[in-house]
């Protein structure tokens, strides 16, 4: 592209632009290395006068795409230039109206066109937080909120993930039946929970309550991620609305309790058990309980929590599919602190044997000395 034209488009000097194009109209056919036309560049810098002048001289540039598949409207929406977006959208609709009258295309087809990643103009406006542009686009075509890009991301999902509360509310008001999907099969509620946007989480729970039970491609509900993050407040709120989600396993056979144990979130475990007392009986595909997971992860605080919570006492000597109790696993994994804590708990069966016929003493002979010390101390006390 001619450097003089680029600089004029950037500066917004319409008079200089006219002089330049009057001298050489063919400058409008030149492109940047990324395939941007002069109208793309004008849309980028947002000088409406320049946008109008270029469009009037070469209206076909309105539909030209750059190497990323962006139209000039994509660029203007991304950059948040409301006046330029307004002008270009009006021209798009005018062109489509004429085409429709000739039976060539349907209304809004050009406006709904996605770029190479299938982002519409609304995706670009939402992603960049351009509220005024979002309002304009939804006023013109509310169904823009129903399109997802190739990653499965809807405008609502993007607003939730980025914490853009005002934009999210605008989408819900303008398009109550808007798409809510996101990447990896997640929903807008997944995004709000993962990013800890509690205000957006509340809005979505009110406006789209069914999202609470939806799982992503990994089989994980929003509760799973709240438990993973140790967000006790979110865990409690989700369980207030639907307790059944505490019993949902992901594709690896892990429940929200399991993941909370794996990452040391004892308070989350207590909150889940408070709402769902029998959920402590949930076992993964290997027959392992929340206590097994705590031992394997070396989470001492969770081990202590499990031993203290009455509803979880049944797990103390629970064997997995290999016959290993939490004590066996503590010895196998050499979790010394946890091993000692379990040995000194009188409820723990030191003689339990796994499927290989091994007791904890067969796994680690030195444990006998620890048990002997425990008995001596117990007799003295």
TrEMBL record:
ANK repeats lie at residues 34-67, 68-90, 117-139, 184-206, 252-273, 286-308, 322-343. The keyword Protein biosynthesis does not apply. Pfam families: Ank_2. It comes from the Eukaryota. Keywords: ANK repeat. Coiled coil: none annotated. PROSITE patterns: ANK_REP_REGION, ANK_REPEAT. InterPro entries: Ankyrin_rpt (IPR002110), Ankyrin_rpt-contain_sf (IPR036770). The keyword rRNA-binding does not apply. PANTHER family: NO MECHANORECEPTOR POTENTIAL C, ISOFORM D-RELATED (PTHR24121), PROTEIN ACCELERATED CELL DEATH 6-LIKE (PTHR24121:SF22). This is Uncharacterized protein.
